[in-house]
Design brief:
With about 475 residues, the chain is of the alpha/beta class. It has 3 domains: about 80 residues; about 240 residues, Aspartate Aminotransferase, domain 2 (3-Layer(aba) Sandwich); about 120 residues, Alpha-Beta Complex (Aspartate Aminotransferase, domain 1), CATH 3.90.1150. Helix content is about 45%, strand content about 15%. The protein has a 7-stranded mixed sheet with strand order 3-9-8-7-6-4-5, with helices on both faces. A 4-stranded antiparallel sheet has the order 10-11-13-12. It has a two-stranded antiparallel sheet with strand order 1-2. The longest helix is centred in the C-terminal third of the chain and has 36 residues. The N and C termini lie far apart (about 70 Å). The mean pLDDT is about 95. The structure holds pyridoxal-5'-phosphate. The site of pyridoxal-5'-phosphate has 13 residues, from α6. This is Glutamate or tyrosine decarboxylase.
C-alpha cells in the first residue's frame, strides 16, 4: 500500500505543476471572461453520474476535469465585475497562505500541537482587537465565516447572562436588516423565533434605538430577560452601520450583551480614511469580522473578537481525559478552548501572510478603493434619467432602481428584475436584486481592488440600455 502511495505522490507533484500553470493562465484571462458562467441541466446530470471508480484514474485527468467541468461554473465572486451579494475577491497572497497552510496541515486546535502557528494566530487576533479599541483582556478566534463567528459570540452572550434555569426567558434583539445567520445562530443555541425581536430600521436602514429601548422595557415588564442586542456594522443590503454608541449605552444600562455583526463592515477599521465611521464599535462585547469578504481572503477565514477572553473560555473550555496533556495557561489559550472546533486548520495564517505582504497601509488603500467604486456607480446613475437612488453609496454598496413615473410599482418591480437577469445572462457583470422597505432594487457591492472606474461606469451604462429596451415590454 505504501509503495502505491509513493507512486501516486510523484504523479501528484507533476499534477501540482501543471495545475499551477493552468491556474495562472485562468487568472490572467479572468477579466475577459464572464462574471457568471451558468451550467445547464445536462452538464449537472453528467456530473451526477460520474461515480467513484474501483481503480484509481490518472491524476492529471482528474485535475483537468476539476478545472474544466467543476471550477469553471457558477458565479465568479472574485471577478472584478462581480457586484452581487458580498463578492469574494481573494488576493493571491491569501491564496498562497491558504495553499501553504493546507500543505503543511498543522493541527492548530491547541498550543501544544502547533505552538508557532497558534502564536501567530493569537498575535494577529491581538492586533485586530487593538484596531477595535479592545484592551489587554480581549481575545478571539479565527473561524470559518461570519455565521460561525456570530453563533460563537452569541453562545458566549447566552452563557454570560443566562443559565439553565433562565434560558427559557432570554430575549435577543436584531433589526429588520440583520443578516439571516444571526437568527439562525440564535435558534441553534436555543432561542426560538418568538423570543427574537426584530427592531425596525430608519430611512437609512439603521436600527432605531428608540424602538429598541421600548422593546427591551416591554420584555422586562413581562418578566423576560433581554440578554443580547445584535447591531450590524455594514448591513448586507445597504452597508448601513447601526448607531453603535447609542446601542452600547442602552446595553450598558440594562446589562445586555452587545454583539456587532461586522462580517462585512468591520474591515473598515483598517481604513485610515474611513475608520471613524465605526466609532463606538469598541464598546461592544463581541464583534464578528469576515476575512473572506473585505480583507480579500479565500473562503473559510473569519474572526470572532471578544472584549474579555474569559467569556469565550467560560463557554468552550472542556478537558476530557485524553486531552489533559494539552492544558495550557490562559495567556496561551488553546484555540479549542475559545470556540466550537477541536481539530482546525490555522485559518489566520493566510490573513497574516496577506497583511505582511501588503502592510497595513496597503490594506487600508485596498479597502478604500471600494468606497470610490460605489461612488462612481452612483455618479453615473445620477447622470441618467429615471434612476432612483434608494440607498446612496456607503461602505462600497449602492442600491438603485429604474423607476420612471409612467410605470406602476409592479411594473417597476418586473423591469428591474429583468434588467438584472439580462445582465447576468450577458455575463459582463454580476448585478443582482434585493428588496428594501418593499421596493425591488438593483444593488452593486464593489470591493474588488482591481475593479476600474470604467468597469463600474460601463456596468451602469449597460443597465441603462436594458432599462430602455424593456421599458415598453413591461408596461401593461
Ligand atoms: C452582515 C453579514 N453577517 C453575516 C454573514 C454571514 O457570513 P458567512 O457567509 O461568512 O457565514 C454575512 C454574509 O454575507 C453578512 O453580510
Amino acid at each position: 500500500m505504501s509503495i502505491k502511495m509513493h507512486e501516486l505522490d510523484q504523479k501528484v507533484e507533476e499534477a501540482i505543476e501543471a495545475f499551477t500553470f493552468r491556474f495562472r493562465a485562468d487568472k490572467r484571462d479572468r477579466n475577459a471572461r464572464s462574471a457568471v458562467n451558468e451550467i445547464d441541466e445536462h452538464q449537472i446530470e453528467q456530473l451526477k453520474h460520474r461515480g467513484i471508480p474501483n481503480k484509481g484514474r490518472a491524476i492529471q485527468d482528474i485535475v483537468n476535469e476539476l478545472v474544466d467541468d467543476i471550477f469553471a461554473y457558477g458565479v465568479r465572486t472574485d471577478h472584478p465585475r462581480f457586484f452581487g451579494f458580498i463578492p469574494g475577491p481573494a488576493s493571491r497572497l491569501s491564496w498562497l497562505g491558504d495553499i501553504m497552510t493546507s500543505a503543511y496541515n498543522i493541527h492548530a486546535g491547541s498550543w501544544a500541537n502547533g505552538p508557532a502557528a497558534s502564536c501567530i494566530e493569537q498575535e494577529l487576533i491581538h492586533w485586530l482587537c487593538q484596531q477595535a479599541g479592545y484592551g489587554d483582556s480581549s481575545g478571539g478566534l479565527f473561524v470559518s465565516g461570519g455565521s460561525m463567528a456570530n453563533m460563537t459570540a452569541l453562545i458566549a452572550a447566552r452563557d454570560k447572562v443566562l443559565d439553565e434555569r433562565t434560558l427559557h426567558l432570554g430575549v435577543a434583539y436584531v433589526s429588520d436588516q440583520s443578516h439571516s445567520s444571526v437568527m439562525k445562530g440564535l435558534r441553534i443555541i436555543g432561542i426560538p423565533s418568538h423570543r427574537i425581536r426584530t427592531v425596525a430600521t430608519d430611512t437609512s436602514f439603521r436600527m432605531d434605538s428608540l424602538l429598541l429601548r421600548t422593546a427591551i422595557e416591554q420584555d422586562l415588564a413581562a418578566g423576560l430577560i433581554p440578554f443580547a442586542v445584535i447591531a450590524t456594522a455594514g448591513t448586507t443590503n445597504t452597508g448601513s452601520i447601526d448607531p453603535l454608541r447609542q446601542i452600547a449605552a442602552i446595553c450598558q444600562e440594562y446589562g445586555i450583551w452587545m454583539h456587532v455583526d461586522g462580517a462585512y463592515g468591520a474591515s473598515v477599521m483598517l481604513s485610515l480614511k474611513y475608520r471613524h465611521l465605526l466609532d463606538g464599535i469598541g464598546q461592544a462585547d463581541s464583534i464578528s469580522w469576515d476575512g473572506h469578504k473585505w480583507l480579500f481572503q479565500t473562503y473559510g477565514c473569519a474572526m470572532v473578537l471578544v472584549k474579555d477572553k474569559m467569556d469565550l473560555i467560560r463557554s468552550f473550555h472542556v478537558r476530557p481525559e485524553y486531552l489533559k496533556d494539552l492544558e495550557s495557561d490562559h495567556s496561551h489559550a488553546n484555540a479549542m478552548d475559545l470556540g466550537v472546533e477541536l481539530t482546525r486548520p490555522a485559518r489566520g495564517l493566510r490573513l497574516w501572510l496577506t497583511l505582511q505582504g501588503l502592510g497595513s497601509l496597503g490594506m487600508s488603500e485596498a479597502i478604500e478603493h471600494g468606497f470610490q467604486l460605489a461612488a462612481w456607480a452612483e455618479d453615473e446613475l445620477r447622470k441618467k434619467k429615471y434612476w432612483e437612488i434608494v440607498s446612496p453609496a456607503q461602505l462600497a454598496i449602492v442600491n438603485f432602481r429604474y423607476a420612471p413615473a409612467d410605470l406602476s410599482e409592479d411594473e417597476r418591480h418586473e423591469l428591474n428584475q429583468r434588467i438584472s437577469k439580462s445582465m447576468i445572462e450577458n455575463g459582463y457583470a454580476g448585478v443582482f436584486t434585493t428588496e428594501l422597505h418593499g421596493k425591488k432594487v438593483l444593488r452593486i457591492c464593489a470591493i474588488h481592488p482591481e475593479t476600474t472606474e470604467s468597469d463600474v461606469r460601463n456596468t451602469v451604462r449597460i443597465l441603462n440600455q436594458y432599462a430602455l429596451e424593456f421599458h415598453d415590454a413591461v408596461k401593461r
